[in-house]
Write a structure and sequence with these properties.
The chain folds into 2 domains: 3-122, Rossmann fold (3-Layer(aba) Sandwich), CATH 3.40.50.300; 126-153, no CATH class. The protein starts with a strand and ends in a 14-residue tail after the last helix. It is globular, with a radius of gyration of 18 Å. The chain has 5 helices and 3 strands. A 3-stranded parallel β-sheet has the order 1-2-3. The chain has helices at residues 20-37, 49-53, 64-78, 111-114, 128-139, and strands spanning 3-9, 41-47, 99-101. By secondary structure, it is an alpha/beta fold. Helix 1 links the parallel strand 1 (3-9) and strand 2 (41-47). The longest helix has 18 residues, at 20-37.
Length: 153
């Protein structure tokens, strides 16, 4: 498809330094925006957002970084063409960058972040054919016999 993805994982959303994960999100967003400025397609992908920025009732500590990650993502949703880096103010608008997140339970994210206007949600419940296609993609280099395609799917 010719897309230059900028990837992040849930593990990057926590740090011993307060504010570092939020800063990293802005940096990666700006990196994708710079790619778009050059006429290429890009998107920011954050894998397992719920694992890095979610809160599981009283069992998970809600840290300063959780708060700042949620606030940063909400700010980007509200002002996608004005994403600033710490210590640097740029008057020029940056291109809008799609942010695609994956997760298993978005209900544990900050309610305002997942609300209408901030996040558009697409749910994927793979059927049998989808699961077989995923398995084929994973194991295609292992030369799995065609008749083995449906075992366990």
């Amino acid at each position: 498809m010719g897309i230059n993805p900028i990837l992040m994982s849930a593990g990057e959303l926590e740090s011993g330094n307060a504010g570092e994960p939020a800063k990293l999100i802005r940096q990666r967003y700006r990196e994708a925006a710079d790619i778009i400025k050059k006429g290429k397609m890009s998107a920011l992908f954050i894998n397992d957002l719920d694992a890095g920025a979610g809160r599981l009732g009283g069992t998970t500590q809600y840290t300063v970084n959780n708060q700042m990650v949620n606030a940063t993502l909400m700010n980007i949703a509200d002002n996608p063409t004005n994403v600033q880096l710490p210590g640097m103010y740029n008057k020029e608008d940056n291109p809008r960058v799609p942010i695609i997140v994956t997760g298993n339970d978005f209900s544990i994210l900050h309610a305002a972040l997942i609300g209408d206007g901030h996040m558009e949600k697409f749910y994927w419940a793979p059927n049998r054919e989808d699961r077989i296609g995923v398995c084929k993609g994973i194991f295609c280099s292992d030369n799995v016999a065609e008749e083995d395609d449906c075992q366990g799917c």
